[in-house]
Amino acid sequence: MNTTTRADAQTGAQADRFKATFGAAPHGVWAAPGRVNLIGEHTDYNEGFVLPFAIDKRARTAVRLRSDSTIRLLSTFGDQGLAEADAAALTPGPVKGWVKYPLGVVWALQQHGVEVPGFDLLLDSDVPLGAGLSSSHAIECAVITALNELTGAGLSVEEMVRLTQHAENAFVGAPTGIMDQSASLRGARGHAVFLDCRDQAVELVPFEAQEAGLVLLVIDTKVSHSHADGGYASRRASCELGAQVLGVKALRDVAVADLDEASGLLDELTFRRVRHIVTENDRVRQAVDTLRAQGPAHIGSLLDASHASMRDDFEISCPELDLAVDTARAHGAIGARMTGGGFGGSAIALTPVAQEQQVRDAVVHAFAEAGLTRPDIFTVTPAAGAERIS
Ligand code: ADP
Ligand code: MG
Prior knowledge:
By secondary structure, the protein is of the alpha+beta class. The chain has two domains: 3-205 and 383-388, Ribosomal Protein S5, domain 2; 208-379, GHMP kinase, C-terminal domain (Alpha-Beta Plaits). Helix content is 42%, strand content 23%. It is built from eleven helices and twelve strands. The strands form two sheets. Strands 1, 2, 3, 4, 5, 6, 7 and 12 form an eight-stranded mixed beta sheet that branches. Strands 9-10-8-11 form a four-stranded antiparallel beta sheet. The longest helix has 26 residues, at 268-293. The model has no long low-confidence stretch (mean pLDDT 96). It binds adenosine-5'-diphosphate and magnesium ion. Magnesium ion is lined by residues 134, 136-137.
């Protein structure tokens, strides 16, 4: 089956399941992808630059508006059963489980003055959960795209980015920035999304790995270290302290050339945290220039430098991520780095097609030798952003 017919079959099966569950056909089906971050880690909350892309794995939501305020939600994932809520009585805090993502979006829309009636929703997603590919934002972006159209709210992409951020921060309770939903809402086939997190300015940058004889492998280590939340909070605190001592609004305003002077003003630990952010912002811009001028085969050393900076200066890697990156590099990847918040999750490895199998085998073998859980390894390509598909 080619990709189009497979997608059609998936959508058809979802519509059938919707009808069987809710007793009528959906008003439409909206899809939004997960994302992988090519480069630019922890730069988002420092008002800096990131370069993610929307991946070819996405959440699809079939939705039918109702005439009352009841919301009924079902996911094809797991056996969590049908959940019910009242659109007129949503408050942040008590909602548990996956439904906090769609309900958070409804709540954020209401906070923005959009009247959202009840609806029935069936979610079907192939974005892996908790692998650092933002399965949660895929859901939120599919839901906000659906509700924006169905309610006639007429929100701009910028507004949808802010509202999904508000949903994650204030309703779900996750202190995330704007990278994930920007990639999911604004992604385009064959392109990475160069995002300025200060003003949401976006440029699409060609990333055609396949045309350059490369694949981008994602290595999901399947680990999530328990200190991830505390580690994230303390990195944010260090960045805020660094910006305060250096007298700038955010670390985005510090240039690589300012680092010498900064080293005399900051304590040793804060300086290393600051140096990661400042050099990472620079690497994102270099990656964009390199992709435009020379193509993906030339960004390998930037990916490697990014990983070293996260491992040594920002200290957010872990043995499993280092093993994945080092093994991929040693067996043919032209560049590799951990991606996402750190302390577990996934690494990416830009790999010549001819070496793909060798890299996969070597990483699986190295994890087995080290007595670690077998990692999940798959390729991702830049795909379309959120859209109506039926
Ligand atoms: P990430 O966004 O990096 O994948 P998160 O912890 O932010 O990790 O989001 C994962 C959560 O999203 C899951 O615990 C689950 O609640 C929800 N989720 C993701 N995909 C699905 C799905 N297909 N069905 C139900 N819930 C899902
Ligand atoms: Mg998430």
